[in-house]
Q: What sequence folds into this?
């Protein structure tokens, strides 16, 4: 059964158009887009690894080497099952530094443009064979189906379609994520088609050719063919070599690196792929023995590699035949597109850009896109030429071995990135050159048909394809040995050591805290405009700022250092790490370090340690716990504290400091003191630079109120910590200062009181004299006017005596020594006595007093002093009350306290005066009515009795009037204390 | 770093003995699909390890 060339061409074009449609619809953002970031799509897109091996190569290999074909699948499955220790570290590095290819990774890690270029050349040379293998498979399968068609025509047409696809969908890189979404979904679809076709073919063979598993088992038992049970011929060397190359393929094949790391939507997706890809390859491998046995059972003619098409033809099923052809076409096209794309990126970054940098005045993005398109086309045309001249004369297995052995030379370097920080660029380049030389001399040149290059250089041509695995191991061992020896013997540059630490697992890079020439994000744009042009520079800086969630205008040195790293990473994704590093180093440089300065970026290290938290185990974990403990201690210290580096950068700003200053740590840590508000900056900077270790009671006005601060300073350096800087403690002494002021005020009042008592005593005698003289005057005259005057003199002297008595009483208060003479006092009796005393006065205004104090409510105290309290309270209540008002005194017991309330119906006390009524000389009465000492006397007496007094106004919620004076005094327990307490009065 | 050394040794041991393991899988007494059963078991283990893995691990 055969097809006509036009129908085969039509089928091919229809399928490739479907691929175009999927990619186009995804890029346009239709429904398909939500599938792009799904882990299943990612896993299927990794199926690009299999290439035409899945459809043709595996069956051919299985027919000769039995289950040895599994090595190609098992090796990479092992690498993915080890993803947490093998692939995740690379993913972390490539995402952090935007390294889109293996050459980028090498150039970044080994800090060498030469390393990147060498990796690119090595990959390009190896990929030519792989591309040729795909072209050969497609043209050979087409030739089987349409024998009249020219293989060259098919190869050329196929390559042109792949060029078109790769140029359209591969060169367009999404600016924000750097992913090729359309391409990923198209490749995943390719993988799905490949898998479905093979499973269908396997099922058809099992049930149609053999009639089920029982039939297969009986055929296997009965067949006399030596290769049928597939248990034979597993050559140890070949198996091991293929297994190793397949294992390394996950890391070193350009298309696998591109799909695994550059197109990975998230580390979680890689986690799913760690078992998803082995499962996919398992399903691809499952039908292979059936295809081989089916081909043998049906006596299919032709090479076993194309049994899949031969069986479909033998079964006389055009649909199945076409399906298998499409499967091969999809496998080949997918691998070619991704390989070419990956290689074009490498060539652009590591060969083109170092030779010719884009014109900064034009649009760099546009320039890069077009150069990449040209490179894609050039690579595929080169691959076609290689295939036409050399590749088509070689077996698929030879092409595969040449390609995989070439890329295998990159394995030592990749493992060095993660596991061997001591490896350096000299070692890498020397090892690579050694390994690649052996590879070229022993595997590439012997097959350089028709040129026979080995004979040209006078070397014997070895006919050793049977021993290709020996060549593989020899070249790899030599590469590894030279890499190790040269790395150990030659010194590495500091920047390389720093990059090695950033890349290696478990190691933390400890960047130095250096100051940039650019002092703001605007300066970044200005400096980068020189190499990139103003528009590109602005766009890159703004993108980096938004990725770091920083404000549009940034000044903090720590954040500027982060911004610099992010800009470098983004430029690395655009121009490759070497060019990016060069641009950033040249245009965003650091200021020269002060002599002897050793400042490390503590915040960077803390941040990195924070990210590593759950990965630290054993001693490192314990040390990290200690670090957290001490950090938390400093953060929660109730005294405001901050530490400042020798360059004036704020390194720590604790919670108490945040509360005092109202400036959050996030805003200022990593910034200069200059970034603080003016008053804080002046204070801290001046104190930090000054020589005094302490500063006391520095006044600072915050939020309109004066604050008094004590500042203390200590140097950070010591015998085990050479780093300069200082720690500053800021004690807020405002409350202490206010208390001191209050104490001084009280002292002043006490002095006034003592003075008043003295004055009162001295004035008392003359006043008594005046009163006596007035009395005498009354006895000696009958003149009514003189009698009235004498009465008035007596009245005024009584008033003077009352004031003097009040002053003397006030000055006597505060003497707690009298407490020992206290005896049980009935509060009811005290209140009653006070009411009686007040009733004697002539200004009672018809006030009605009500005493509701329980008879048995007693306290321990001085009865006369307590009467004084109630007289004062009731007199105040009387003065405030209206005519015929009512004053009520209630009392109750509340657990161990006696609560007495004096409630009047007066005008009440305004809220703003309630805090002051107990202050001496405070009065709301007219100047001739009160001295302002009554309530302060009450307060003192109540305090002497270990009680307290409160004011509540208005007391009557209905009328909004009245005042309630509430006394709380310790209640007396007659049953327990009465007998034991001595009655000193009696 | 102890765990990495352990993993490295394990991988090396499996690699060296892999032809023997394959010969054992494809031994005369086993069904033709025996290697796939062993491989399937490895995938299940890989799935289980990934499923129970702390997202911050490694």
A:
């Amino acid at each position: 059964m055969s097809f006509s060339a036009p129908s085969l061409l039509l089928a091919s074009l229809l399928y490739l158009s479907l691929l175009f449609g999927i990619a186009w619809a995804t890029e346009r953002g239709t429904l398909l887009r939500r599938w792009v970031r799904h882990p299943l799509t990612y896993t299927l897109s990794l199926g690009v690894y299999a290439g035409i091996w899945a459809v043709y190569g595996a069956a051919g290999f299985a027919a000769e080497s039995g289950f040895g074909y599994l090595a190609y699948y098992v090796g990479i499955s092992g690498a993915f099952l080890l993803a947490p220790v093998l692939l995740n570290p690379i993913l972390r590095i490539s995402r952090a530094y935007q390294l889109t290819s293996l050459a980028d990774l090498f150039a970044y890690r080994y800090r060498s443009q030469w390393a990147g270029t060498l990796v690119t050349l090595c990959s390009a040379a190896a990929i030519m064979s792989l591309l040729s293998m795909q072209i050969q498979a497609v043209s050979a399968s087409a030739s089987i189906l349409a024998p009249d068609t020219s293989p060259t025509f098919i190869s050329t047409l196929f390559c042109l379609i792949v060029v078109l696809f790769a140029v359209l969908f591969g060169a367009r890189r999404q600016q924000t994520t750097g992913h090729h979404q359309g391409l990923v979904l198209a490749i995943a679809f390719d993988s799905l088609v490949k898998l479905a076709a093979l499973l269908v073919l396997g099922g058809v063979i099992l049930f149609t050719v053999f009639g089920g598993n029982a039939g297969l088992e009986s055929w296997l038992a009965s067949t006399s063919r030596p290769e049928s049970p597939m248990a034979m011929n597993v050559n140890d060397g070949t198996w091991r070599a293929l297994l190793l190359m397949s294992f390394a393929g996950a890391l070193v094949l350009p298309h696998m690196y591109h799909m695994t790391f550059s197109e990975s939507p998230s580390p979680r997706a890689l986690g799913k792929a760690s078992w998803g890809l082995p499962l996919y390859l398992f399903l691809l491998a499952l039908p292979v023995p059936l295809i081989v046995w089916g081909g043998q059972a049906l006596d299919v003619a032709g090479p076993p590699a194309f049994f899949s098409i031969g069986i479909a033809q033998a079964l006389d099923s055009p649909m199945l035949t076409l399906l298998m052809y499409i499967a091969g076409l999809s496998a080949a096209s997918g691998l070619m597109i991704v390989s070419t794309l990956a290689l074009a990126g490498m060539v652009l970054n590591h060969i083109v850009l170092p030779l010719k940098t884009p014109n900064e005045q034009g649009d760099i993005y546009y320039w890069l896109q077009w150069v990449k398109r040209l490179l894609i086309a050039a690579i595929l045309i080169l691959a076609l030429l290689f295939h036409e001249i050399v590749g088509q004369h070689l077996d698929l297995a030879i092409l595969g071995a040449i390609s995989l052995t070439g890329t295998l030379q990159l394995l030592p370097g990749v493992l060095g990135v993660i596991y061997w920080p001591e490896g350096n660029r000299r070692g890498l380049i020397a090892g690579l050159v050694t390994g690649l030389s052996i590879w070229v001399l022993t595997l590439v040149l012997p097959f350089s048909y028709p040129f026979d290059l080995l004979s040209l250089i006078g070397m014997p041509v070895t006919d050793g394809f049977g021993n290709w695995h020996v060549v593989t191991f020899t070249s790899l061992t030599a590469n590894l040995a030279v890499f190790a020896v040269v790395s150990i013997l030659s010194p590495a540059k500091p920047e390389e050591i720093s990059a090695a630490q950033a890349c290696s697992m478990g190691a933390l890079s400890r960047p130095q805290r250096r100051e940039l020439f650019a002092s703001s994000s605007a300066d970044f744009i200005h400096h980068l405009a020189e190499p990139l042009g103003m528009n590109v520079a602005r766009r890159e800086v703004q993108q980096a700022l938004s990725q770091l969630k920083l404000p549009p205008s940034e000044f903090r040195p720590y954040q500027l250092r982060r911004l610099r790293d992010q800009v470098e990473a983004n430029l690395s994704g655009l121009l490759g790490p070497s060019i990016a590093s060069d641009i950033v180093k040249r245009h965003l440089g650091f200021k020269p370090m002060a002599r002897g300065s050793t400042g490390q970026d503590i915040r960077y290290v803390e941040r990195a340690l924070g990210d590593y938290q759950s990965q630290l185990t054993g001693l490192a974990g314990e040390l990290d716990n200690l670090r957290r403990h001490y950090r938390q201690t400093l953060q929660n210290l109730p005294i405001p504290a901050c530490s400042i580096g020798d360059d004036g950068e704020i390194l720590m700003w604790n919670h108490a400091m945040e509360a005092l200053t109202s400036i959050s740590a996030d805003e200022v840590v990593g910034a200069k003191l200059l970034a603080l508000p003016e008053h804080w900056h002046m204070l801290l900077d001046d104190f930090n630079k000054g020589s005094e270790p302490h500063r006391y009671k520095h006044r600072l006005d915050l939020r309109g109120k004066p604050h008094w601060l004590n500042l203390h300073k200590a140097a950070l350096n010591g015998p085990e910590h050479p780093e300069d800087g200082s720690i500053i403690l800021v004690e807020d002494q405002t409350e202490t200062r206010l208390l001191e002021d209050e104490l001084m005020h009280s002292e002043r009042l006490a002095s006034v009181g003592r003075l008043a008592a003295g004055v009162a005593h001295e004035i008392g005698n003359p006043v008594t004299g005046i009163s006596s003289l007035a009395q005498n005057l009354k006895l000696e005259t009958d003149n009514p006017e003189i009698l009235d005057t004498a009465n008035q003199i007596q009245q005024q002297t009584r008033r003077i005596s009352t004031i003097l008595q009040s002053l003397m009483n006030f000055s006597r208060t505060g003497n707690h020594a009298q407490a020992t003479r206290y005896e049980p006092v009935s509060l009811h009796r005290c209140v009653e006595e006070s009411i009686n005393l007040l009733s004697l006065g002539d200004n009672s205004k018809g006030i009605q007093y009500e005493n509701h104090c329980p008879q048995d409510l007693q306290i321990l105290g001085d009865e006369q002093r307590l009467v004084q309290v109630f007289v004062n309270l009731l007199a105040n209540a009387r003065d405030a009350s209206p005519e015929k008002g009512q004053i009520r005194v209630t009392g109750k017991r509340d657990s161990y306290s006696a609560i007495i309330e004096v409630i009047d119906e007066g005008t009440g006390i305004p809220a703003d005066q309630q805090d002051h009524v107990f202050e001496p000389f405070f009065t709301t009465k007219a100047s001739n009515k009160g001295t302002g000492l009554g309530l302060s006397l009450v307060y003192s007496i109540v305090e002497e009795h270990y009680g307290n007094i409160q004011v509540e106004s208005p007391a009557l919620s209905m009328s909004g009037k009245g005042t309630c004076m509430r006394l709380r005094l310790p209640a007396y327990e007659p049953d327990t204390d009465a007998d034991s307490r001595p009655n000193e009065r009696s | 770093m102890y765990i990495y050394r352990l993993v490295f040794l394990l991988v090396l041991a499996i690699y060296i003995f892999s032809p023997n393991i394959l010969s054992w899988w494809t031994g005369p007494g086993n069904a033709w699909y025996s290697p796939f059963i062993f491989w399937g078991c490895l995938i299940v283990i890989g799935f289980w390890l990934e499923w129970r893995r702390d997202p911050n691990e490694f």
Q: What stands out?
A: The interface with chain B takes residues 66-68, 70, 74, 77-78, 80-82, 84-85, 88-89, 216-217, 220, 229-231, 234, 236, 239-240, 243-244, 268, 271-272, 274-275, 278-279, 282, 285-286, 289, 419, 505-506, 613-615 of chain A (CB under 8 Å). The longest helix of chain A spans residues 734-780.
